[in-house]
Amino acid sequence: MASKRLLKRDVNNVMGDIIDAAYIHQAANPNEDPAKSEAIVDEAIATFDDLIAKINKKDVEDNKQHFKEVNEEFETKANALVEKVNAL
Asked: pLDDT tens, 19-57?
């Protein structure tokens, strides 16, 4: 596992890209209901907040295992959000 800083940067970049993709889809398809893309944006923001809170958690027994679990959760949630954006 890399550093905490790099994990935060990855979370920020990926969630930002997902939000950008949702807004780009919304702008490219103005006739569609924007509620679907707004729901994806809201979910991405909530996921970002949750992951950053877990990364900043101080009272962890095993840091290496904790960050491995956070990274795995990050990957699964990011993949799910990307699939939702692609389904738009």
From this structure: 999 999 999 988 888 888 999 999 999 999 999 999 998
- Beta carbons of 69 and 7 less than 8 angstroms apart: no
CA atoms of 83 and 16, how far apart (whole Å): 15
Amino acid found at 58: K
List, as one string, the DSSP characters of the chain: ---HHHHHHHHHHHHHHHHHHHHHHHHH-TTS-THHHHHHHHHHHHHHHHHHHHHT----S-HHHHHHHHHHHHHHHHHHHHHHHHH-
| pTM of the predicted protein model | 0.86
- Say how far residue 20 (Cα) sits from the centre of its chain: 12
